[in-house]
Amino acid sequence: MKKNDELKVFCKNTNEYIGIEGGDTLLDLYETIKDRLNLRGDAVCVMVNNKVEDLHYPVYAPKHIEYVDIMPNTGYRVFTRSLCMVLYKALNDLYPGKRLCIQHSISNGHYCQIKHEEDFLTPDIISSLKQRMSQIIDADIKFVRRERLTTEVIEMFRKQGLKDKVRLLEGVNQLYTVYYKLDDIIDSFYGPLVPSTGMLKVFDLVPYERGMLLLGPDRKNIDQVAIGEPQPKLFQAFTDYINFNKVIRLGDVGELNRAIKEGYASLLINVVEALHNKHFIQIADEITRRYHEGGARVVLIAGPSSSGKTTSSKRLAIQLMTNYIVPKVIELDNYFVNRDRTPRDEDGDYDYESLYALDLEQFNKDVTDLLAGKEVAMPTYNFKKGEREYLGNTLKLEQGDILLMEGIHGLNPELTRNIPEHQKFRLFVSALTTLSIDDHNWIGTYDNRLLRRIIRDHKYRGSSALDTIRRWPSVRRGEDKWIMPFHENADAMFNSSLLFELAVMKNYALPILQQVPSNTPEYAEATRLIKFLNYFEPLDEKDIPSTSLLREFLGGSSFHY
Question: Considering the entire predicted model, what is its pTM?
Answer without folding.
Answer: 0.93
